[in-house]
Write a structure and sequence with these properties.
This protein is globular. The protein has 4 helices and no strands. The chain is mainly alpha-helical.
């Protein structure tokens, strides 16, 4: 199985787990909704990664990080605490996968 197929499979499981969590866990609704949209968007990016350029990845990354920071600020009351920092760190780590794929695509061409 290729790396893209593994990424699609993992993102699908993550999206399913986040969706199931809506029925069992009440706090942090907006954060979970943002990460659900993020997981679904990752699936579409992995499916269409051959046609995606660096510019799109930069804009997408900025939008996702602003979304995560915004919903975390709304959920936690605008405090810069460990939760927001860890969520942004997690988001940056996940977005680095997209930069790696786009960079590898440019090297292969």
């Amino acid at each position: 199985m290729s790396d893209n197929n593994w990424a699609i499979l993992i993102d699908t499981f993550a999206a399913a787990a986040i969706f199931i969590s809506f029925f069992f866990y009440a706090p942090f609704l907006y954060i979970r909704l943002a990460f659900l949209l993020f997981a679904i968007a990752q699936i579409f990016i992995m499916i269409n990664w051959e046609r995606i350029g660096r510019g799109f990845i930069w804009v997408y990354s900025c939008v996702v990080m602003m979304c995560v920071a915004g919903v975390c600020a709304v959920e936690t009351g605008m405090h810069l605490d460990g939760t927001m920092i860890s969520l942004l760190g997690f988001t940056v780590t996940l977005l680095s996968v997209n930069f790696t794929l786009v960079s590898n695509k440019a090297i292969e061409e």
